[in-house]
Amino acid sequence: MNSSLLSLLVLAGIAIFLILRLRSVLGSREGFEKPPALPGANRADPRREFEVIDGGPDEDIIDHVEDGSDSAKALAAMKMAEPGFQVGEFLSGARQAYEMILMAFERGDVEGLRPFLAEDVMETFETVINQRHEQGLTIDAEFVGVREIALQTASFDRDRSEAEITVRFVGELTSVVKNADGEVIEGDPTEIKRQRDVWTFARHMGADDPNWLLVATDG
To answer: What HEC string does the chain produce?
Structure first.
């Protein structure tokens, strides 16, 4: 074996030794490394601990009702009964429910209304729809959008865990009434109408069914 080959083998051995040594110190790294914990990271933040104990205003509530009002207290009680409840999310759902219920009523879709309405409200809606059918009337409507939505009042029965929230809507839509011959007898399909409604929704907080029912209407 000549001296050149011997030198190469020695250098290769040294390189392998250094690689193995480096790996034993650094370890094998995959993905992102977890950063080192900051001093005191495992201890509770005194400021946050104080805020939780002290309470403080709930922005999710006071963004929609006056702080300290009966409605604010009712909403806070709802959150205690069901910690996942959020007022903002409820209003977002109410906006969608308003469109679905309003359009189902205009179309005369009784079965489409049934899952969203309390029994007595359903009876009222169904009576009006049946009267339309008896007169041979139909309504062609298009929903434009919700111009305004505001939480008006809230109440909570702690004994029954029953919540009620009243919401004021201002919706925009086009609608025409047609007779049995398909002739327009009321309305203009190009005219956007503004409709004001005050609806009350109810639900048992903590129940498995997440749906709120429409229990009262007031134009």
So the answer is: CCHHHHHHHHHHHHHHHHHHHHHHHHCCCCCCCCCCCCCCCCCCCHHHHHHHHHCCCCHHHHCCCCCCCHHHHHHHHHHHHCCCCCHHHHHHHHHHHHHHHHHHHHHCCHHHHHHHECHHHHHHHHHHHHHHHHCCCEEEEEEEEEEEEEEEEEEEECCCCEEEEEEEEEEEEEEEEECCCCCEEEECCCCCEEEEEEEEEEEECCCCCCCCEEEEEEC
Q: pLDDT tens across 166-211, in order?
A: 999 999 999 999 999 999 999 999 999 999 999 999 999 999 999 9
Q: Alpha carbon 3 to chain centroid distance? A: 79
| Calpha distance 16→160 (Å, rounded) | 75
**Domain 59-218: which CATH number of 3.40.50.300, 3.10.450.240, 3.40.50.11210, 3.40.50.720:** 3.10.450.240
CB 170, CB 199: distance < 8 Å = no
Is 197 in contact with 148 (CB distance < 8 Å)? no
Task: Please indicate, yes or no, whether the overall pTM of this predicted structure exceeds 0.85.
Answer: no
Distance between CA atoms of 70 and 28, rounded to whole angstroms?
60
Token pair belonging to 117: 């309405």
Label residue 145 left, alpha or beta by phi (over 0 means left) and psi (-120 to 50 means alpha): left
- Are residues 176 and 191 in contact, defined by beta-carbon separation less than 8 angstroms? no
